[in-house]
Amino acid sequence: MGGHKRVTRAQVWRNRIIALAILCAIVGGIASIVNSSCTPQDISTEEPIKHVSKDVHLWGDVVTFVAVGDNLPEADIGSFADSKAGSIGDGEYDYSAVFDGVRERVQDADLAYMKEETHIGGSSIGPHGYPAFNTTDEMADAIVEAGFDLVGSATNHSYDWGSYGAVDHSCEVWADKDVEFTGTARSKDEASQLALIERNGITFALLDYTYGVNGYSAGDLPSYTVNIIDEDRITEDVERAKTAADVVLVAMHWGTEKQTEPDADQLRYAQLLADLGVDVVLGSHTHTIGPLEWVEGKDGNKTLVAYSLGNFLSNHQNQHVYNQIEGMLSCTFFREGPDDPVQIEDVTWVPLVNHADVDGSFCVYPLADYTDEMASMHKALGELEDPVGELKSFTKDVIGDAFPIDD
Questions:
Q1: The dihedral formed by the CA atoms of 51, 52, 54 and 57, expressed in degrees to the nearest 10
Q2: pLDDT in tens, 294-308
């Protein structure tokens, strides 16, 4: 797609008002009998539209977008899902409640992305946690119902149960869902297919990679099974994606666990992706949030890089307080005309809290909706004197002042 020129919503609306004024002048000259007023003053710019329908968009193409990090449900989360469906131990699960706190924000976006770290290996295996994760098929239903459209699956746990558990069954399940799924595949042909999705006249491509898989080297499994980070492969894939899509999103499962600053490999690959003209990089793996920044490519373009969105849903043993704060990247893609470049605006970091209640329930909430009273019931946050204040301060320290934080 080349480069981006960042624009503000005010600039977009100023351009739209000018266009409307010109249109009204033309209409007024042709049809002087029209009595109704048609002037720029009729439009208020104090509270511009925040969301444009997936079916209706005016004055150009507009797509609102959100992205979250690793969906990492462990065995206790499987037990919670078991308790929400039928009788305990009957093999039925309902994970939908874990998304109730963010459902509205996800569904309000035109396009939503998630990294599904624990793969869908089926009920015959059942819910499993570390070190060999497995999640039952009902998780895919809950993800789709929550409003996610794009699902990445390339992670270090992609091969936890070998070809059957992590790949074949998972891909089969996702193939029947109304989402674009990528990162793992059952065949060379499946691996070569680009994950493409169109919203409001703009086509998006999602590419997905991981630094490796636990217990295996890249040569231990078929090359098409899991997308491993490789400079030559990424370069080729990005070039293909740029010919098929207006916007290229790249999900990278990378970095050093428990570290908030990007490591040398992340910085190197972020620069490569910027030089290739990628539009947005969606990082995960470290179990903590990481910085958000614009990285300039060799052609002067700007790539938006979220080094880590953190854990979206998790229940790590001995979990640290700061594993509970995560991020939702929110932005808007805008194109004024069919031949114009797509621009990125309204970039916002939305802090999320992974709520692990002492009663055994789990739910993800925006930090803006989270209270100290709720935190007092959290397995880890309840130990803090000012949990909400500490989570806000930690988020600000990591994300900084370059982007708005909706907390």
A1: -170
A2: 999 999 999 999 999
Q: What's the 3-state SS for 257-269?
A: CCCCCCCHHHHHH
For residue 284, which amino acid is it?
S
Cα-based distances in Å from 319 to 278, 311, 354? 34, 11, 11
Phi, psi for 330 (deg, rounded to 5)? -125, 135
pTM assigned to the model: 0.86
Quote the tokens at residue 357.
């209640």
Q: Are 60 and 9 in contact (CB under 8 A)?
A: no
Rounded to whole angstroms, what are the CA distances from 340 to 5, 122, 147, 175, 270? 11, 45, 29, 34, 25
Cα–Cα separations (whole angstroms), residue 205 to 116, 156, 161, 231, 385: 17, 22, 28, 18, 44
How far apart, in whole angstroms, are the C-alpha atoms of residue 211 and residue 186?
Answer: 19
Cα 225 to Cα 154: distance, rounded to the nearest angstrom: 9
Provide the pLDDT confidence category of residue 252 given band limits of 50, 70 and 90. very high
d(CA 354, CA 108): 20
User: Exposed (0-12), middle (13-18) or buried (19+): which is 155, by Cβ within 10 Å?
Assistant: buried
Alpha-carbon distance values, 13 to 4, 8, 57, 178, 193 (Å): 18, 9, 14, 33, 38
Those residues whose C-beta lies under 8 Å from the C-beta of residue 41, and which sit 6 or more positions away, are none
Q: What is the DSSP letter of 213?
A: B
Q: Report the distance separating Cα 251 and Cα 137, nearest Å.
A: 23
| Residue burial 269-304, b: 16+ Cβ < 10 Å; e: rest | bbbbbbbbbbbbbbbbbbbbbbbbbbbebeeebbbb
